[in-house]
From TrEMBL:
Residues 519-538 are annotated as: Disordered. One of its GO terms (molecular function) is carbohydrate binding. It comes from Nocardioides humilatus. The lineage of its organism: Bacteria, Bacillati, Actinomycetota, Actinomycetes, Propionibacteriales. This is Uncharacterized protein. Keywords: Signal.
Length: 609
């Protein structure tokens, strides 16, 4: 997830971040008038499997590898004859059979550690993944006899990657999503256990080496895959960072490698001779040097072009900067502070020690402003660096009254003011020290207290869960207590239904539909409140709200919004760990001027033989 976004969590509101794409479970005991599901779990030789875990899973729980709450009546384990008897569910269900995680109740053992694959039985048959099913058993008062449910042995991929010592290796579905992860040993050997039969490829590298991937391979339990390869180092960039004035090496200095646009790729700390070495580069334009403040030297980058060669060299001359030290007086509680350059941009947030002393190194010639605040007031000190020396800024008393921002927004909307650069929500994150959040009242009035003067505040509002499009305002100048309205436009609503291709059968599990926008718009949603709609039960129906006017794209939910803390925004990915299958829908280009009903959207099963 891109961390650059405005947070919009109201003061006093719950701020717990939900686990990535998991759904709440409510496992009430099954009604006693529902029928039972009976059957026998056997292996491929027809022999009974004792101790197999059998779960009855309604739509909200289908993708789980077991159920979190083991107090319900919808799970059991097989006896010595492989037989089971378990309650149905009146919401419709699949029957999941797996190897139980020892002493973990109704939880399946992770595929890499299991002796047989997870199996799902439904009206369509028994398959290795819930993704292969298109229908549910209906709960009823009549018992359901499944007969034999055969569990399958897992498939395996093993191999050797030369030049890969303790490297991440991934087995991939053919849609470029990760099925499993593992790591090479000291000799580059690796093994993937627990895979469902199917077609995959393996990839590695890209972190100090060139990216590598294998050709696709087809595997099953009797035909394991074997993959070999070599991680290549690519072009090596070597150099030396040194003090331009003295020629002395810049020891223990963080050096960044960035692309031609200045976006960081990697960083390292120079050695005692100031040397650095980056590997795995492909042809292109780069920048190397000290990217940001944080040491004795002034930030400086050198341009370097990499061609089709084994090694290039780029030395980095650095200029030692001045230092400035400040001491605070009369502080009350927590203190926040930032040092700003002559343009008002934050270069050092929160360097104050607990004793109220802060030292700012690596300062170039120019004018700076130091602002600090505690719970009752703020102080401000401007100074000019004219030469490379240590400046003592003396003591600063935090005795100026804090500023207040008040205005109108949507009813109950959350409004925040911060000096962090978070606008637009999808742009690169830059850290500031000051951040205040409040919630408007039922009339849309808000008040934010505890602010300090600045020319680069961001003020943003989000009316979630109300149907308003969020907005952020960048570079807001606040020099005094003032009124600042943050009106929110009413959001549009998009509805539709996910169905299986060629049928009118709705999707059986809680997938999501995602509406995304061109980058850089101030009305783009935050990562806490993405414009995602989750299907309701097994209806396949979804609703997405808070959609602004303009161009957008609708697609099946594939992005991991791990910062989304509202359960209504959690959904499952349309694939399952350790299997090659996935569901896919055609993206839809939208021009939004009002509410939209997409009707039925067809999902196609991919990855199957």
């Amino acid at each position: 997830m891109n961390p650059r976004r405005f947070t919009l969590l109201a003061a006093g509101l719950a701020t717990t971040v939900a686990p990535l794409l998991t759904l709440p479970t409510a496992h009430a005991a099954a009604p006693s008038d529902l029928g039972w599901v009976t059957g026998t779990v056997v292996d491929t030789h027809g022999d009974p499997v004792e101790g197999a875990l059998v779960n009855v899973l309604p739509p909200r729980e289908i993708p789980e590898l077991g159920m979190i709450d083991d107090r319900n009546q919808r799970w059991t384990v097989t006896d010595a004859d492989g037989k089971f008897r378990v309650r149905q569910d009146d919401r419709g269900f699949l029957v999941q059979v797996c190897e139980a995680e020892p002493e973990a109740g109704a939880i399946c053992r992770f595929p890499t550690e299991a002796d047989y694959l997870v199996r799902y039985a439904g009206p369509d048959g028994a398959f290795d993944s819930w993704v292969q099913h298109t229908d549910l058993y209906d709960g009823s008062t009549t018992d359901l006899a499944l007969g034999q449910v055969e569990v399958q042995p897992p498939a395996r991929i093993k191999g050797v990657l030369e030049g890969a010592e303790h490297e991440l290796v991934q087995v991939m579905r053919l849609n470029d999503t990760v099925a499993l992860n593992t790591q090479t040993d000291e000799s580059g050997r690796f093994t993937f256990d627990g895979l469902a039969p199917g077609r995959y490829y393996v990839r590695a590298g890209g972190f100090g080496t060139l990216p590598w991937q294998s050709d696709p391979i087809t595997i099953d339990a009797t035909h394991p895959g074997t993959v070999t390869g070599t991680l290549e180092g690519g072009t090596v960039l070597v150099g030396k960072a040194f003090d331009e004035a003295t020629g002395e090496p810049a020891r223990r200095t963080e050096i960044f490698l960035a692309n031609g646009d200045g976006e960081p790729i990697a960083s390292l700390i120079t050695g005692r001779r100031g040397t650095f070495r980056f590997t795995g580069l492909i042809a292109g334009d780069y920048q190397v040097g000290q990217l940001r403040h944080g040491g004795a030297f002034v930030p400086h980058l050198e341009d370097v072009t990499v061609g089709d060669v084994d090694q290039v060299r780029a030395d980095v001359p650095l200029t030692r900067g001045a230092t400035a030290t400040l001491r605070l007086r009369g502080t009350d509680g927590r203190v926040d502070s930032e040092l700003r350059d002559s343009a008002g941009e934050v270069i050092y947030p929160n360097l104050l020690r607990e004793d109220g002393v802060a030292t700012y190194p690596g300062l170039a010639k120019g004018r700076y402003t130091l602002v600090a605040k505690d719970g009752s007031g703020y102080g401000i000190r401007s100074f000019r660096v004219r030469e490379v020396k240590a400046y003592d800024l003396g003591r600063l008393r935090l005795d100026q009254p804090l500023l207040t921002l008040r205005g109108r927004t949507a009813p109950r909307a959350v409004v925040e003011a911060t000096t962090s650069d978070l606008c637009p929500a999808d742009s690169p994150f830059e850290q500031g020290a000051f951040h205040e959040i409040e919630q408007a009242d039922a009339s849309g009035h808000y008040v934010i207290r505890g602010l300090v003067p600045g020319e680069h505040w961001m003020v943003a509002a989000d009316g979630f869960p109300g149907n308003y499009a969020p907005i952020c305002h960048d570079d807001v100048v606040i020099t005094q207590s003032q009124r600042y309205d943050v009106p929110l436009a009413a959001g549009n609503t998009l509805t539709g239904r996910l169905v299986y291709a060629g049928t009118d059968r709705p999707v059986i599990a809680n997938l999501g539909y995602d509406v995304t926008y061109p980058e850089g718009q101030v009305t783009n949603p935050t990562s806490e409140h993405p414009t995602v709609g989750r299907t309701r039960g097994s209806t396949g129906e979804f609703t997405v709200t808070r959609i602004p006017d303009g161009a957008a794209t609708g697609n099946l939910g594939l992005t991991g919004y791990d910062e989304a803390y509202a359960p209504s925004l959690w959904f499952y990915f349309p694939y399952q760990v350790a299997t090659p299958y996935w569901l896919e829908a055609e993206p839809i280009e939208l021009e939004i001027t009002g509410d939209i009903d997409l009707g039925d959207i067809e999902l196609v099963l991919k990855g199957a033989a």
